[in-house]
Design a protein that fits this description.
The chain has 323 residues and is an alpha+beta fold. It is built from 9 helices and 16 strands. A 7-stranded mixed sheet has the order 5-2-1-6-7-8-9, with helices on both faces.
């Protein structure tokens, strides 16, 4: 009878819950879950528990929430648990003393086809860059971010109108299956890895850095395809935005969650507004229009464009600001 793997699972957001749930349902022994400390959130700054923490508590899994992954107390606790294997999904960068601890190694699930889109936001950047495919990859962690030897990967098509939120859910479910397959291959001592360095000759490696506010601002001087891909690549979070300028010089910040692109020839300046003031509002780009469908005005709720126009007076004298 083969030894039961003693697994420590590390993750924080919703993306990390599905693989943990599948492993538990498949009968794997999760000795402990490691997740981020509770953080203040919302207007009241109440402490918010991570989705992984809530799942661990609901399923009676021992929980660790170290603020410092190098702290002697945390290291000693891991040594006491004696994990055979550690699994990391959407967590922080681990110090060497942690990822080297288990005899079977520490592997990570990444939401891209490595070596492409290493970094914090692979789902967003794949769509922003107009990719037609992406995927998930498991790899053994080493001293550099997302560069370890690849264990398994699975390619996933990106649909033409798919948002980051929709792709996130799809990759979360597919990634869960790949995590399970990876654990089984490690359990059976049947792992064959591929060096990432052997895959990167003569190809452009595209990064996936953390998304900041400057990445979210729409440049209306771009093509319809580029603007459309940026909007859906940031939807629903953190969301693309623009600023509308009234004839009186007032500015209004507008988040855009859903839109359509329209390729057509016109003689309008980029950022020009076209609207019937009731159900339709478009913003001109270099080779057509972006037709807004679902938006959110600052300090207001998310709404359809018809709902927005019902309570907000705007006409063709307005424009979207281009910086």
């Amino acid at each position: 009878m083969s030894k039961v793997l003693n697994i420590v699972y590390m993750g924080t957001p919703e993306f990390a819950v599905a693989p943990l749930d599948l492993l538990l349902k498949q009968g794997y022994h999760i000795s402990a879950v490691v997740t981020s400390p509770d953080k203040p959130a919302g207007r009241g700054l109440k402490l918010c528990e991570s989705p992984v923490k809530r799942y661990a508590i609901a399923n009676g899994i021992p929980l660790l929430q170290p603020s410092n992954l190098k702290s002697p107390e945390f290291i000693e606790e891991l040594k006491r648990i004696k994990p055979d294997l550690q699994i990391v999904v959407a967590f922080r960068m681990l110090p060497e003393v942690v990822w080297k601890l288990p005899p079977s190694g520490t592997f990570n699930l990444h939401a891209s086809l490595l070596p492409q889109y290493r970094g914090a936001a692979p789902i967003n950047w794949a769509i922003i860059n107009g990719e037609k495919k992406t995927g998930v990859t498991t790899f053994f962690i080493n001293e550099n971010i997302d560069t370890g030897n690849i264990i398994m990967s699975e390619e996933v098509p990106i649909l033409p109108d798919e948002t980051a939120g929709e792709l996130h859910d799809k990759l979360m479910n597919i990634g869960s299956e790949v995590v399970l397959k990876t654990v089984k291959s490690i359990e059976e001592n049947n792992v064959k890895t591929v060096l990432q360095q052997s895959m990167i000759s003569n190809i452009e490696i595209k990064p996936a850095p953390k998304i900041f506010r400057n990445h979210c601002r729409i440049n209306w001087n771009n093509s319809a395809d580029k603007v459309y891909d940026r909007i859906r690549g940031l939807s629903p979070y953190p969301s693309a935005y623009t600023e509308l300028l009234s004839p009186q010089g007032n500015q209004y910040c507008l988040k855009i969650y859903k839109c359509e692109k329209e390729h057509t020839i016109h003689n309008l300046d980029a950022g020009s507004i076209c609207t019937n003031c009731r159900t339709h509002l478009s913003i001109a780009v270099t080779d057509g229009f972006i037709n807004l469908q679902e938006i959110q005005l600052q300090a207001k709720k998310k709404m359809t464009i018809a709902e927005f126009l019902c309570g907000f007076q705007i006409d063709s004298k307005w424009k979207a600001i281009i910086v």
